[in-house]
Amino acid sequence: MSKVLIYAENFDGKFKKANFEIVSYGAEIARQTGAEAIVLSIGNVPDEELKQLSVYGASRVLSFNDGRFDALENQAYASVIAQAVEKEGAEIVVFSNSNTSKALAPRVSVKLKAGMVFAATGLPKSIDPFMVPKKVFHGKAFADVVIKSPIKIICLSQNSFGITEDAKAVSIETFVAEIDDTVFKTRVTNVEKATGKILLNDAEIIVSGGRGMKGAENWKPLEDLADILGAATACSRPVSDEGWRPHSEHVGQTGKIVAPNLYFALGISGAIQHLAGVSSSKVIVAVNTDHEAPVFQEADYGIIGDVQKVLPQMVEAFRKFKSEN
Ligand SMILES: Cc1cc2nc3c(=O)[nH]c(=O)nc-3n(C[C@H](O)[C@H](O)[C@H](O)COP(=O)(O)OP(=O)(O)OC[C@H]3O[C@@H](n4cnc5c(N)ncnc54)[C@H](O)[C@@H]3O)c2cc1C
Fold first, then answer.
1. pLDDT tens across 231-245, in order?
2. pLDDT, tens digit (0-9, with 9 covering 90-100), for 215-230
3. Which end is more exposed in the chain, N or C (fewer Cβ atoms within 10 Å of the end residue's Cβ)?
4. How much distance in Å is there from the Cα of 268 to the middle of ligand 1?
5. Is the pTM here over 0.85, yes or no?
6. Is any ligand 1 atom within 6 A of the Cβ of residue 218?
């Protein structure tokens, strides 16, 4: 039986939503091709957490755990993944489109001489030839790419397939890989984590402000809204250029590319360079005084109004809703 191997990335021993999506995706490819869906996890992840992956259609979970792998080391991680693909005889390898995968997938591709599609947006359109749809030009266009090599690597864009539950009995197996100390080319000596804040790339909801917010002093209600919704905060590029918000919050072509379930664009015009970073959001809500602002063409819900007036009302409404539910 052919196999689809899915690499599940953990953060401090826990899996995030993007992993459930790629397991669902890999399991669906396995179903369509009569293959088996296997997940590979690297690092120290409790069995209970590993078992969760069975909910999304994987039938086996391979767990590789070695004290040297507590911190990400790209060469070493890529070696483990490549060994798992070879030992299992997997023909399709699935990664999420994360920053980590941007480092790992190309290395695995070189080791296995495997064709790779980055930023895939859906299931293969055909199996023979193996054709995968993907985003190009920062999501402004799409292309279909045929992978011709025997082993095929797909990195799936976040929020492009969804999470489907297909619970299976799962076996958790210890995976053994031979990794020489010389494979480790770097060593992490210190990690300082941002605490208390939801990271933009992980956020399911993002509340974002543009120049229409008129100044750093007006951000309090935006932060209140983010707190109530458990959201991350973001901004347009001029806002970070002005120093109203940190550069780490800037989204768009030259900033972070995000794909939350819900994106609030508050006082943001919707320039093409901004939308390039947010257009994969499932639902966009825009507030703008200008009914002709381009953001309304992309938005699912639009409020034409002054953000200084609308935002406090949104905060109140969500606060009330939260307290009642
Ligand atoms: C090469 C290049 C790369 C770029 N990369 C990025 C990028 O990565 N990210 C990015 O964001 N931009 C980027 N830009 C800049 C981009 O072109 C826009 O200039 C920018 O996105 C505009 O930001 P904004 O919408 O906050 O501001 P503006 O364009 O000034 O729009 C402000 C909006 O707020 C509305 N408004 C005003 N007052 C209110 C109010 N009281 N209530 C509600 N709405 C109000 C206005 O109607 C307007 O639509 C890039 C530009 C270039 C040339």
1. 999 999 999 999 999
2. 999 999 999 999 999 9
3. C
4. 5
5. no
6. no
State how many domains the chain has.
Answer: 2
Q: Are residues 265 and 160 in the same domain?
A: no
Residue 302 Cβ < 6 Å to ligand 1: no
CA-based angle 152:108:278, to the nearest 5?
75
At 124-174, the pLDDT tens digits run 999 999 999 999 887 778 999 999 999 999 999 988 898 888 887 888 999
Mean pLDDT within 247-261: 91
User: Does residue 156 share a domain with residue 101?
Assistant: yes
* CB-ligand 1 contact for 237 (6 Å cutoff): yes
Pocket flag, ligand 1, residue 277 (CB < 6 Å)? yes
* 75 and 156 assigned to the same domain: yes
Q: Give the Å distance between the CA of 237 and the centre of ligand 1.
A: 7
Indicate if 136 and 250 belong to the same structural domain.
no
Which of 245, 264, 269 maximizes ligand 1 atoms within 8 Å of its Cβ, making it the mutation to test the pocket? 269
Q: Which domain holds residue 320?
A: 200-324
